[in-house]
Design a protein that fits this description.
Blueprint: E1 3-9, E2 26-27, E3 30-31, H1 32-42, E4 47-52, H2 56-63, E5 68-71, H3 78-86, E6 95-100, H4 108-120, E7 125-131, E8 140-143, E9 149-153, H5 160-163, E10 167-176, H6 177-183, H7 200-207, E11 212-216, H8 229-249, E12 253-254, E13 260-262, E14 267-268, E15 273-274, E16 278-281, E17 285-286, E18 291-292, E19 296-303, E20 308-309, E21 313-319, E22 324-325, E23 330-331, E24 336-337, E25 342-345, E26 348-350, E27 353-354, E28 359-362, E29 365-367, E30 369-371, E31 376-377, E32 382-384, E33 394-396, E34 401-402, E35 407-409, E36 412-414, E37 419-420, E38 425-426, E39 435-436, H9 448-465
This protein binds uridine-diphosphate-N-acetylglucosamine (UD1) and calcium ion (CA).
């Protein structure tokens, strides 16, 4: 007993036209290679090997300690790639599953079916196949009149009759490890592409009287592979739809799933409504009875129950129960927005705690501040937190009132229940229940405009005479 996996990821993926290796491109926020490794982990295999070649350091760095790395120096074909892993392969493991790093939607259940089929039939190999509408570019599965496996022929090597076949090779196999090791050295690159085809091992088993069984994939969407950016978008769309469907079944209303983006690690409570253009990323959690969106991006945000977030962006922060955010608010890392708080339009909050029931309704910047409960932060209030070298904190006590257009020059403290007049620039602490006004006195000149207009008219008259 024992099972190994070999993941092929040596080819750069030229058609991606990218500086980045193909398997590092993300699908729903996660690099393709990690989708594969996550599924393989569910199978609790005894060994996982990733074959790298192009950009090997970058791929190996993302794989980390989750798999062994084998290097294929030159990409001479899928058979050659598997051969590159042989040195690392634990021959005590009876079954070796081979799959690709660029087909990220394959599910553990399907791989388990394939592995079991190989083991139950004591077959040399079990091949995952699919009956597809459009087989263009893929290897065709040739069966004999009794329906037994004969071989796989690549499109470039196929006759017109063979090309008419719609059953294709997905490129996913479970091999008897011993038979695989016997077949690999027999491969020769005598084909249209001059490559060592892994598929030729199957014909080899067949000729030697071994069993090769085929397993049709139940859901074709699982085998979608990525060769260019159009296919990347197609694969992303499949997974995005599946994630939305899952949350819809859990009691979340998703008004338009095609325009809703939910990351794999996100959780959402019942009776929450997601409006179009909602993007939930990273370790974001959303409570029950929330309304999120439209056009809202939440990355690593903990949102409690009953929260509304409208047309806003929030990152690495917490939003408390029944809070209302937006439209057009920006909540930055390290912020804790309390219960029933209102963060209104064009408000930016950074690294600040906002106490329960406080209102920051419009056009304010609250940075590096500790704001108490039931505070009114007026329109245009700014915490002046940066002196050009260092950041300083502002403390605003419970139940205080900060009038419109106040500058709070940090470090500064406003006591509980204090009142700061509109337009003030506050440089000194205000005690609890204190009243502060810090603005220059108004000067009013009653008849000034009339006199000025008259002077102007007289000057114009002089000008026309000369
Ligand atoms: C292969 C199969 C084909 C199947 C198709 C499914 C062969 C000969 N053909 O074709 O029957 O229908 O997959 O997608 O196997 N790779 C390496 N090193 C190499 C060559 C490839 O690591 O030297 C990796 C690539 O990075 C890629 C995967 O193997 O992830 C598949 O290679 P690719 O060239 O796309 O195989 P196909 O020609 O599409
Ligand atoms: Ca391919």
């Amino acid at each position: 007993m024992g099972r190994s996996a070999i993941v092929l990821a040596a080819g750069l993926g030229t058609r991606m036209k990218s500086k980045r290796h193909k398997v590092l491109h993300e699908v729903c926020g996660k690099p393709m290679i990690l989708h594969i490794l996550d599924e393989l982990e569910k199978l609790r295999l005894d060994q996982v090997i990733v074959v790298v070649g192009q950009q090997r350091e970058a791929v190996a760095a993302v794989v980390g300690t989750r798999a062994e790395i084998a290097v294929q120096e030159q990409q001479l074909g899928t058979g050659h790639a598997v051969q590159a892993a042989v040195g690392k392969l634990d021959t005590h493991n009876d079954t070796t599953v081979v799959l690709y790093g660029d087909a990220p939607l394959i599910r553990a259940e399907t791989l388990e079916t394939l592995l079991s089929a190989r083991e139950q039939h004591a077959a040399s190999a079990a091949v995952l196949t699919a009956n597809v509408q459009n087989p263009t570019g893929l290897g065709r599965v040739i069966l004999d009149p009794e329906g037994r496996f004969v071989r796989i022929v690549e499109e470039k090597d196929a006759t017109p009759e063979e090309r008419a076949i719609h059953r294709i090779n997905t490129g996913i196999y479970a091999f008897a490890t011993a038979d695989l090791l016997e077949a690999l050295p027999q491969l020769r690159p005598n084909n249209a592409q001059g490559e060592y085809y892994l598929t030729d091992t199957l014909a080899f088993f067949n000729e030697k009287g071994g069993t090769v069984c085929t397993v049709d994939v139940a859901d074709e969407r699982e085998i979608a592979s990525v060769n260019d950016r159009a296919q990347l978008a197609a694969v992303e769309a499949i997974l995005r739809a599946q994630i939305c469907e899952r949350w819809a079944k859990e009691g979340v209303t998703i008004v338009n799933p095609e325009h809703t983006y939910i990351g794999l690690d996100v959780t959402i409570g019942r009776d929450t409504v997601l409006l179009p253009g909602t993007i939930l990323e990273g370790r974001t959690t959303i409570g029950e009875d929330c309304v999120i969106g439209p056009n809202t991006q939440l990355t690593n945000v903990q949102v409690a129950d009953g929260v509304t977030v409208q047309q806003s962006v929030a990152l690495d922060c917490e939003i408390g129960p029944a809070a209302k955010v937006g439209p057009f608010a920006y909540i930055r890392p390290g912020s804790q927005i309390g219960e029933r708080v209102k963060i209104g339009d064009f408000v930016e909050v950074k690294n600040s705690r906002i106490g329960a029931g406080t209102k920051v309704s419009h056009l304010a910047y609250v940075g590096d501040a500790d704001v108490g409960r039931d505070v009114n932060v007026g329109c245009g209030v700014i915490t002046v937190n940066y002196d050009g070298e260092r950041k300083h904190r502002t403390v605003i006590g419970d139940g205080s009132f900060v009038g419109s257009n106040v500058n709070l020059i940090a470090p500064v403290e406003i006591g509980n229940g204090a009142y700061v007049c509109a337009g003030s620039t506050i440089t000194d602490n205000v005690p609890a229940d204190g009243f502060a006004i810090g603005r220059s006195r108004q000067v009013t000149k009653a008849d000034y405009v009339q006199a000025w207009k008259q002077r102007k008219a007289e000057n114009a008259g002089e000008g026309s005479r000369s």
